Amino acid sequence: MSETPGPTCDRLSEVQAALEEMKAERIIPPQHFSSMAMLVTDASLTADEPVIQAAHDGLRRLYGHHVRADGDQAERAEQRGHLLGLLDMTTWALRRLPSGLQLNFAPQGHTVSFLLEVAKEQGLSNEQLAGRLKVDATEISRIGRRLTAAGLVWKSRQWRHNAWSLTPRGTQYLESAALIPPAPSGIDYCVGVKVRPESRTGVVTDASGEVYTSLHIQARFDGSQEKLIQELALFVRGLLDKVPAAAEAAKSGRTGLGVEIGGHVATASGYVVNAPNYADDAPWPGLSLGELLQKATGLPTVVENDANAMAQLALAVGDADGSSDFAAVVLDKGIGAGLMVDGELLHGASGAAGEIGHVVVENYQGHECSCGNRGCLESVAGSDAIARRVQEMSGDPVPDLARALVLLKSEDRGKLVEEALTEAGRALGRGLADLLNLANPDRVVLYGPEPLVSEDHERFPAAKFFMTAVRRTSMDHAFSTARDVVIVTRPYEDELGARAAAAVAWNRLDQD
Question: What is the pLDDT of residue 239?
């Protein structure tokens, strides 16, 4: 493996500086944990062993210091939890470093052909590779085991099939053997964009996750795919104009673009399979969003489902408290889940894993969902569904969740709103119980509107009714040890979604 002393040296300096800043704090601020998580993620993607080891050693020393320190026990326990989460990340990254085996594969052999096919299309199954190489699946398994041992590929499970992907070392081997052209040397900035039918929100971040600028535009798309792409490209250019360094880096391919939408996305291609909550505004289903945006902006582009993006951000910034088996659930107008299994995001056979918003929690004569079915979870517990239910019960015009929560304070309507919130919370609890029983995560990170998920019930009284019903119902319907799961809540807003989109782009595009 060839060395890249410049980036390693710079990254190592950043890690050492971050550790010194953390050491100087009696109570380490959350942003320090987030920055370190981004640095470790960056180093693990490039198999940068010196940096990962330095982070691991420094975090162990910090953890020992906080174990021995005096002071508020709750604060110290929280600090130790965050540090343990980062230590889990570095331990996992060190275990995933490629082996030191010397490689000598025949250029025309099946082993190199295996690598080349995976380089063309990440996530191929044994059966797909067997068909392309014209060998049986047993031979593919044998080759895969050899390449895994050499640190060139890694294997995940997608439904019932293996899914093969190249490691950074695998890409480097193919490049050094002149079997594929060298990839761009990496990225310095990322644009992250959260797209709604009626708005778009964006940020520009660097490798540490620092947000340089943000932008929000409230405007609906028209009915043309071409106009939609033009408007998104113009929005991205507006963000870049606010950060000249990122605009300059874009000229040499060192600025990436991540986009998240609330729909079924084939992540590998950036193709929108289905987006029922978006379909009235533009022909989203069948839109090659990633490819068209990349052509329009000139930026390497990644498109991801919103809940999947939040799961990756949760892993990066520590919202899952160091867990590698968790679900990130996004409660919005729709409801979705991103599933992390052993630190890997589960996309499913076609990218639709985690669509719990379309699990039926009412009977089949329940409310109609945007997907066309009836009784789906998001048709009962989504933010618009709560507003609609309050309107049905009160007879008052209730256009959105904010108006529904205003009525909670009224003497004659307050009880109706409480009932609607409890009903929605029970529905979400039933959906979460199904998720716990099927996926068996050790925790759920629930992202939603702060008035619904906040732990501060004095400031946000609606959360008391809603979250009490969620927690109680999910535990009542969960099976066996699924009842032991930890449910943590985090306020969700569009800028956080844009940051998640940027984090996805960093994870997949930065090969420096």
Answer: 96
What is the spatial order of strands in the sheet that 486-491 belongs to? 344-346, 335-341, 326-331, 443-448, 486-491
DSSP annotation of 276 reads T
CA distances from residue 79 to 26, 32, 87, 143 in whole angstroms, order as listed? 10, 11, 12, 44
**Cβ neighbours of residue 415 under 8 Å, at least 6 residues apart?**
none
**Closest of 503, 499, 492 to residue 335, by C-alpha:** 492
Residue type, 341: V
Residues 418-428: tens digit of each pLDDT: 999 999 999 99
User: Cα–Cα distance between 379 and 358 in angstroms, integer?
Assistant: 9
Q: Which pLDDT tens digit goes with each residue over 229-261?
A: 999 999 999 999 999 999 998 988 889 999 999
Phi-psi domain of 186 (left: phi exceeds 0; alpha: psi -120 through 50; beta: other):
left
pLDDT above 90 (res 166) = no
Mean pLDDT of 127-146: 90
Q: pLDDT confidence of 324, banded at 50, 70, 90?
A: confident
**Which residue's structure tokens are 């507006």?**
238
Neighbour-count burial for 231-243, b at 16+ CB within 10 Å, e otherwise: bbbebbeebbeeb
CA distance 225 to 282: 6
Cβ neighbours for 224, distance < 8 A, ≥ 6 positions apart: 282
How far does Cα 303 stand from its chain's mean position? 11
Contact (Cβ atoms closer than 8 angstroms) between residue 246 and residue 293: no
Tell me which DSSP letter residue 349 carries: S
d(CA 204, CA 194): 12
Name which of 151, 283, 258 is nearest 194 in CA terms: 258
| pTM for this prediction | 0.64
pLDDT in tens, 272-322: 888 888 866 667 888 889 999 999 999 999 999 999 999 999 988 888 888
Please compute the mean of the pLDDT values over residues 37-55 and round it to a whole number.
82
The string of DSSP letters for 46-102 reads TT-HHHHHHHHHHHHHHHHHHHH--S-HHHHHHHHHHHHHHHHHHHHHHHTSPP---
The pLDDT value recorded for residue 70 is 61
Count how many Cα atoms sit within 13 Å of the Cα of residue 129 in the half-sphere of its side chain.
30
Identity at 150, one-letter amino acid code: A
DSSP 373-408: -BSBTHHHHSHHHHHHHHHHHH-S---SHHHHHHHT
Instruction: Flag whether pLDDT at 379 surpasses 50.
Output: yes
